[in-house]
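Quick one: structure for this chain?
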Amino acid sequence: MDSDMQRILRAGCGLALTLAFAAPALASYGIYVGSGLTADGSVLLGGTGEEVSSHWLEIVPAGTHPEGATISVGVDGRATYPGEFIEIPQVPQTAKYITMNYTDYEGFPPPLTNGGLNEHGVAARDIWAPSRPELAAMTPEPQRGPNYSDLSRIAMERATSAREAVTIIGGLMDEYGYSTYGGNSHLFADANEGWVVLNFAGGQGLWIAQRLGSDEVRMSYPGYIHEVPVDFREREGWMGSANFISFAVDQGWWDPDSGEPFDANAVYGNGEGRSEGVRIIEARLRQQAMEGGVTLRQMMNAVRDPLISSDAAGYGQVAHIRQQDPHPELKMLWVAPTGSVTAPFVPYWIAGSEVLPEFGKHRYLTKGQASTFVRPDFAVQEASRFAGRLFKRLMYYTCDAPARFLPEVTEALTAFEDQSIEQAGAIESRSLVLFNAGEPAMARAVIDDYSSARARAALALGDALLGSIEARHRLLEGTEVPADAREMGTRYGPYVNCRVE
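Got it. Here's what it folds into:
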């Protein structure tokens, strides 16, 4: 191991890091590990979205759309950078995909999404990536074009590869513009490669995309690209807007005669590069790659790491993108119903269609619901327990005394997931027999039954952990009532977290 990696790993050995993974106002993270670095030759893409909102699981079916159909994209006048909606053409056929939806981002119409996994094996994560203030200030009012969630959803609906996802969203930004909240990025992956895409604020149509190969680890928090070849549009592994270099030259932000490389993060971004926390997690994954390859288990651990998984994490996701699935419908996405630091990953396959009511949409933290009564047709759904709330309660007790409670919670969640990983192969084999026998409905029922059974088992585990830890917390830690009950918190950080200080 080289000395730099040793230094980084030593820095992250204790969770008593103050390092400063201080949560930003606009966040989310994504982690990519290429197929050459994993134990089974798969591609792994994990992460979360960080939004002040409820989150719920949805399996969106494939759809057909009539000629001339359109979709509304953009933001309204309440957004940080006010905008107006426009209509753009819908495609005739959209793909099935699995996603976590949410409702709250000012001026952005719900439901919102950060990506997920589609039937073609394309996985997506959406991650913040701030643009330099001078560029953000150029954003026109009103701004127009698809927003980050529009692009994520459209990529899930249309892309058959990670590369195609980039060409689709890049083409949309080139033609229709882009509605920003200050800058953003995407990670796309399939069984062969990954791509990181940055879309900048300012209304200038600036975007850049870099290919991630089979031997790469990339964590975005925030999304970044450093050195960009001046002739990138003529090079394999790069895409971007035609004005990406020339606009910076015109603004005096980069001098082509300086001899300095064109660093996209320095020229158009926040100029801070990779944070120390990103270096720590990437170094751990690279070390695991050298020790036999990163496993699905280790990727779940990385997404769950208390350095990054906190109350702000709305959910957890790990896409396990294998080189060869047993059947086209057996593509897998593992989903935790809220921050995975204290919530288990449950397996879902593209073949499935069933989401338990407990993992569907509820009123808890859903924008605009506090001032209304429950609709009669939604009453039974709302009467069910909400997995997000259950595991939030577990998080709040656990993270109030993480040194005491986090090890046992992590141990239990890991054992639960290891059991699911071990059983998944047999479930796939059973469903494959039925697919091959011409009984797809029965094959899909096997998948639904297992995913739902694991979801119910996750709820039972959460109940057991919460009951035990709640009782012991009251005895051992006590309950401190806030001096002013009106001050429940702030919209953005500091967040409840399980780091041991």
